[in-house]
Write a structure and sequence with these properties.
Layout lengths: L2 H18 L7 H26 L8 E4 L6 E4 L19 E7 L5 E12 L4 E4 L5 H16 L13 E9 L10 H13 L7 E3 L2 E2 L5 E2 L4 H11 L3 E5 L11 H4 L3 E5 L2 H9 L3
Parallel strand pairs: 3-7, 5-6, 7-10, 10-11
Antiparallel strand pairs: 1-2, 3-4, 4-6, 8-9
């Protein structure tokens, strides 16, 4: 918290304590409740400033320290989701998290789930409603998946399986606009029955020919990753030149792995050579 944040929170705490406990008698638990309320209120202000002013207001992780136990406690905003969107444990094979631009123009976090069953190569997509662009992105991923299996596992019989793909919008920003690469990685995670690395987010997109797209607004994407609880990121090498635009305090929060092409992204996400 910067000095302006500290002053705002202290004034809110002071005012609420005087109103709620005018006799000056309150417990440590009472004070902690008021402090959390003040921190949440200030973070909401900071979240709106971040949307207006960009990365100047990037640091929205507010916390306080219990002087008795020296435990640091973070305060999240319920509507933002805090750091609980992405769990710390190992995901099941065929599950991943992706951060990207939604149809509302805001960056959000998405969960991708792929189930592979015996069939005839059909693809069933759910969770996208009638969004044509998002469905075309999934089609791009599945077409590349079927045409380039030699790069990952040539022995896997793609045409003898059906693929059920579900996309979950975790922050209400609308259907994703650039989810092809993340879907491609998740398809292989399901087929190989191997989990994507813990607390990892997939960033980047691809064309039908396998060309990797550069990430727009890299700093804002990484901030959403941090807010969602990510600790590891796979990032396209095409975006390496934009690292200088990311505050060092933000960039240092992640274990970053770069990839060059879609096949490379599968190996990096699954943590295999």
């Amino acid at each position: 918290m910067n000095q302006r944040d500290v002053i705002a929170v202290r004034k809110t705490v002071s005012g609420l304590i005087k109103i709620i406990y005018p006799n000056g008698e309150y417990s440590k638990e009472d004070l902690e409740e008021v402090l959390k309320y003040a921190l949440i209120g200030r973070r909401r202000v900071k979240e709106q400033l971040k949307k207006i002013g960009g990365m100047e207001f990037y640091d929205v992780h507010f916390s306080y320290i219990d002087n008795d136990t020296m435990e640091e406690k973070y305060v999240s905003v319920p509507e933002i989701g805090g750091g609980k969107l992405i769990p710390e444990g190992m995901l099941k094979p065929g599950q991943s998290y992706f951060v990207g631009l939604g149809e509302t123009g805001r960056i959000g976090t998405y969960k991708i789930e792929v189930e592979v069953i015996n069939g005839h190569g059909k693809v069933n997509i759910t969770g996208l409603g009638n969004n044509r662009q998002a469905k075309e992105e999934i089609t791009t991923a599945t077409n590349y998946f079927k045409a380039n299996k030699k790069g990952v596992n040539d022995s896997f019989d793609i045409d003898s399986k059906d693929y059920m793909i579900h996309i979950q919008d975790l922050q209400g920003v609308g259907s994703p606009q650039n989810i092809a690469l993340a879907t491609f990685v998740t398809l292989w995670s399901a087929c190989l029955k191997k989990s994507i690395q813990m607390s990892m987010v997939i960033l980047g997109d691809m064309t039908i020919g396998g060309t990797i797209s550069k990430i727009d607004d890299l700093a804002d994407n990484l901030q959403v990753c941090l807010d969602s609880g990510a600790k590891k990121i796979i990032l396209p090498m095409a975006s390496a030149g934009d690292i200088s635009s990311v505050p060092s305090e933000l960039f240092s929060k992640f274990n970053i792995t770069f990839y060059n092409d879609p096949i490379d992204s599968v190996y990096k996400a699954l943590g295999v050579e």
